[in-house]
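Annotated sample (chain length 565).
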Amino acid sequence: MKYLFFPTNIGIRGYSKKRYISIFVDPNGKNRINTKAQKHNFLTNIPVLRGLIYFFFGIYAMFESYAETMKIQAENLSQEIHRMSNKTKRTLIYFFCFIVAITFSLLLLGYVPSKLSFAILGESKNFLLRNFIIAIIKVFILFITMLVLRFIPTMQELYKFNGAINVISENKANNEISFKHKALNFLNYFVFVFFLSTFVITLVGIRISFWANWLVNLAIFLGIVTLSYELLWLLGKNSKLEKACIITSFLVCMKPNTTHVEVAKMLNAQLSMKDNYYGEKMENGKIPLSTLLAEMQLKLTKAGKYDKSDVDWIIATVLGKNRAEAKLVRSFDEKTYREIMKATEQRAAGKPLSAIFGFVDFYGMRFTVNKKVLAPRMETEILVEQVIKASEGIKKCEILDIGTGSGAISISIAKNSPAKVTAVDISKQALEVAMQNAKDNGVKVDFIESDLFQGLKKSKKFDIIVSNPPYIPTEEIETLDEEVKKYDPKLALDGGKDGLDFYRRIIMDAGQHLKKDGLIFFEIGKGQFTSVKKILEKNGFIDIQGLKDYNKIYRVVKAKYGNVK
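Output written by the structure step:
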């Protein structure tokens, strides 16, 4: 037994020979991770012994896991309950479970089967037949009880996390959910033992004395614990035979969703990482990709900052490769590993990637950024793409970029079209960054320090005007993520009371600087399309269109100047 996994209704706990790791999803949807170095020398693959260990250690682990989940869930309960000591909580939990188990056993597994057997057989003296009927009734009652539990939401979550454990045992690709019933899943094993021992002990029906009965039944039970493990182990060796375990497995396993699987895969990777990297020699002295990804995911998820694209970007940047090339790298030397983890820790602390590395990749180019300019976002590439496409049909096209910042928009357009591009910005520091980016990317752009159109000649006209102006309402700036408020310049965010100040100012004067049938393009914020469209219409623009981004949100507005003002 290399790893052992035990589910709860909010997560999974996993054990290796060196430690245990718990990953639970708290009431706020965030992953809570707890790990402790703890030697488990009893994990063994010795026949007979392994079944006993798996069963009794599993019961202990399940109780410990539930005690841990109760602690997490108690954080949302009243202060009085929250102040209760962990010891008191556990005692209450164990006592409640004990009372429920005793009551269930006496009523459903003692009194009811006995009465039903007399109703079926009457006064029959056939001892074996009577015990057989009672055993069948007990198993049937257990089966129906387990079936009813599947309709309780809390139990459904437990069974889905249990199903996620089956998924990781399939060793499929990270993005594939291959759910199958597995023979040696702990809950399946536990239910199988419970059903079989109930049937056999009832069928045998030893009647000697209290202690003799107890000892014989205990011996039978331990034998069934051992034999059940070996039987399920054999079934698990054959994919066709393993399907037979569905008789009990479907009672305690349900198909998981992505969240359940991500928790299970993260836990599996963490156990592997901790065993391999911390203590054991890595293959060829390098850290494998799976280990690196697991540790990155753990740190970022714990901080609530996990994003797969960020992980890919960090690895590719440290390696000095593009993302496609970086995905081919399967292992890392210790120096590279440390650099990647340093960047990961900074990202987990809330520092954006642009601030960590001092640059971003945008439209196939690299742009230096700092606190004086807004780091270009991926969705802004849609704006650039639309402007380039529109410029293709215009001879000797001239384009104006208003509020250029890092120069990402103007430089990307100039690099990918024959258009003559002019870019303005009110910030001298931002223009210095933009000019350096143009030089680094081998692009010619005419940069002018100007508050919108003020620094331009009144007679100067363009075929296209493009802008990604500040569009965050002033009152909402303080509600933005800390990393945005801390690292992005307020000048590039604040769009006034309703976020539309710069649209009004640009649109009001744009007609004076557009040629006949000139076009204007804006990037807009969520929910601003209708408002910007009205401003455009009011100022003589026609053929107004909105384009959606990757999240189906209107992100770009395109309009033609109607020359009617």
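Annotation: The chain is about 50% helix and 15% strand.
Annotation: The mean pLDDT is 83.
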